[in-house]
Amino acid sequence: MGRYLLIGIGVAVLLAVAPIVFRFCSGFIAGVRAEWRNIRMGKMTNRTLTDGSPVTPDHREIDPATGMQKAYVVLSAEERAKGFVKPVRRTYVHAKCGVATTMGQALAETYARNPYFYSGTFCVGCRKHFTFGDPDGLFHWDDGEVVGSA
Ligand SMILES: [Zn+2]
Predict the structure, then answer these.
(1) Same domain, yes or no, for 67 and 23?
(2) Which of 13, 47, 106, 131 is deepest in the core (most CB within 10 A)?
(3) pLDDT, tens digit (0-9, with 9 covering 90-100), for 72-93
(4) CA of 41 to the centre of ligand 1 (A)
């Protein structure tokens, strides 16, 4: 009988403690989630459009006259000022058509700060965007290095 009483008390204690443990755990998980959100928001605020203005939802819209996007996302001036891991290079050649494209300083500095920031790029000869790694997506900087690789 004593054993059953102990088990009964054990279960009662568990039932009493369970909501507290649950609340603690869910509080912990919510905290981690909030932290993640902050990290993601922080990353987002590291990005602007080439003119330094906030990123707009419609910036990817293509201008039919040029084939270029309405605007391009870059790392913020503050983020770029932290230093470059690669030289600032403004001109690259499309392997497919041989035409050289020269981009703005903010874009070039974004590549220099983070060579993997972009998944593809634009060619003025083809008037199109290409994804790095695709058969037509091979571009070389004027020093010979492949764009988007390092
Ligand atoms: Zn091209």
Answers:
(1) no
(2) 106
(3) 999 999 999 999 999 999 999 9
(4) 35
Q: What mean pLDDT value characterizes the chain?
A: 89
Is the domain of 6 the same as that of 23? yes
CA 71 to CA 61: how far, in whole Å? Answer: 8
User: pLDDT tier at 38 (50, 70, 90 boundaries)?
Assistant: low
The answer to whether residues 26 and 58 belong to one domain is no
In a domain, 36, yes or no: yes
> Is residue 110 in a domain?
yes
Q: Are 100 and 93 in contact (CB under 8 A)?
A: yes
> What is the reported pLDDT for 43?
53
Question: Based on the structure, what is the number of domains in the chain?
Answer: 2
Residue 31, pLDDT above cutoff 70: no
| Cα 42 to ligand 1 centre (Å) | 35
Distance from Cα 111 to the centre of ligand 1, integer Å: 19
Q: Are residues 35 and 68 in the same domain?
A: no
In a domain, 103, yes or no: yes
Closest CA to 142 of 116, 106, 113, 103: 103
Give the chain's radius of gyration (CA, Å). 26
